[in-house]
Amino acid sequence: MDPAALGQFVPLILIFVIMWFLLIRPQQKKIKDHQKMVEALRRGDQVVTQGGIIGKVSKVKDNNEIEVEVAEGVRLRVVKSTVAQVLSKTEPAEG
After folding, report:
1. What is the pLDDT of residues 13-34, one digit of tens each?
2. In contact, 68 and 53? CB cutoff 8 Å
3. 88 Cβ contact list (under 8 Å, min separation 6)
4. How many helices (H) and strands (E) does the chain have?
């Protein structure tokens, strides 16, 4: 391969490197942070789902679900990964 042909690939490589640092890496970090947030959910946390429902976690189930209380006595089964934000965390129980 002659140097001129190799020189044509340098801009493509630079574009890929820039795309990696500006787009791909931050997205991977965001996904990783979301997974940590979902794994840390526990009873009493106030959450917002991707659908905009605000409620308090009343039960964390093993099969990738949580139960969210949206009103007195009204509970919804929600897939953990649809939690968009934790508004307030509960303090861990001592003992």
Report:
1. 999 999 888 888 999 999 999 9
2. yes
3. 45, 46
4. 2, 5
Residue 45: the pLDDT is 93
Q: Tell the residue number behind the tokens 């968009």, with chain if given.
A: 84
Phi and psi based region of residue 70 (left: phi greater than 0; alpha: psi -120 to 50; beta: remaining)? alpha
The three-state secondary structure class of 62 is coil
On whether the CB atoms of residues 90 and 43 are closer than 8 A, the answer is yes
What is the three-class DSSP state of 23? helix
Point out the residues of the chain with pLDDT beneath 50: 95
Among 94, 83, 2, 89, residue whose Cα is nearest residue 44: 89
